Amino acid sequence: MAKVKVSMTIDEHVYAQFRQYCRDNGMKVSTKVEQLMRESLKNSSLKQFME
To answer: What's the whole-model pTM score?
Structure first.
């Protein structure tokens, strides 16, 4: 599957905490964000767009 670069605006405090969480758990921020996006889509009415 192809990857795409994205640009987002996120509160710096939230991003710093999330980045530290990812470091502490040995994962990349982008990988964790993708995982959270997949879970959100799976658990919502947006699921139809993933098929």
So the answer is: 0.76
